[in-house]
Amino acid sequence: MPQALNLRNGTITYDNFFWLLEHADSNPADLLLGEDLLQISFCGGRYLLDAGWYGFGPRGQFGVMLVENQDWEHPLRQEYTREISRLPALLQECIDWLWHTRIAPAEADPRPLLQVVAGIVYNDRGEVLLSSRPAGKAYAGYWEFAGGKVEAGEGELAALRREFAEELGIQIHSAVPWLAKTHSYEHAHVRLRFFRVPADGWRGELQAREGQQWRWQQPGRYDVSPMLPANAALLAALALPTQFSGSLNEGLHAADGFCVLPLHAVNPPPGSRLLADLADLTADTPDDVRRWPLVHSAGDIAAAAAAQAEAAVWPANNATAAEQACAALAEGVPLPLVLLSVNADIAARYAERWLAAGAHAVVQG
């Protein structure tokens, strides 16, 4: 892992920059930075960093533009330059993304796996609660879903309740498991178990008991930054609908107009597509297509997550498949999982169990 960046007056060293390029994707100019594009410009052996909104890269990712001219007064730069105080955090997000998606997965982390819980708390407006990490902790100032480590002999839900009472002064009385992600930070190797807490699942007045900030955010429209690296994919997943109708042949449709169409639908609009086979994850698809493969096992789900699928769909039309899905959900899935059954009896028997175990949605198709 590279040393912490030393950024002063908007400049970084050659060594840090070349490390960045060496560990980038096959196209070193495509680096995911969330909602900002980082522009690094050459200037006499130093680099000027501008954060701006210049457009989308492959698969909807923002990119890093490497600009070799010295046109510091370019109109785009003047219009889109963000405040200099945000640049260190933006660059660190870039390094974190490269490390956790390209390097760490290829090297088994030998450190003990720490069990951590986090809560996605909703209010009556459908907003979710984000809080900043307090001074003195790793990634101080980064925004996250509140939570903390599960103590020895403590259950996950008990840990969630304790952490929210200690950090934010509220009482959690009902929560449903959702996603589980393993993440290698510089300071720890953690397994994060995320719970969704409905608006009527908590009570009390929010308090900043650790000196942190907190803010309500609409899923898909976040205006706090920087985000904790492990939360990037999860933030996007929260904006996905949780109720669908449809079938594998017709696609999945939500009331708000969101749809997941079959891959070979005629004249489909940009959006999400159902993939009939995991092999389709490696096939060429248009840049504006977000992929939802069909899965039939926990291994399939892991492969879909590794290929950065947006979500996965598990067709469970018999009791064996339904029980296998329950077991996979109980272990924790790393991306939103939709259960779909054409068998009305199976759907009726298992829908409640699937949702209670962490399914993102259940569809009778």
TrEMBL record:
Its EC number is 3.6.1.55. Keywords: DNA damage, DNA repair, DNA replication, Hydrolase, Magnesium, Metal-binding, Mutator protein. It catalyses: 8-oxo-dGTP + H2O = 8-oxo-dGMP + diphosphate + H(+); 8-oxo-GTP + H2O = 8-oxo-GMP + diphosphate + H(+). It holds the Pfam family NUDIX. It comes from the Bacteria. GO terms for biological process: DNA repair; DNA replication. One of its GO terms (molecular function) is 8-oxo-dGDP phosphatase activity. Residues 112-241 form the Nudix hydrolase domain. This is 8-oxo-dGTP diphosphatase. It comes from Eikenella corrodens CC92I.
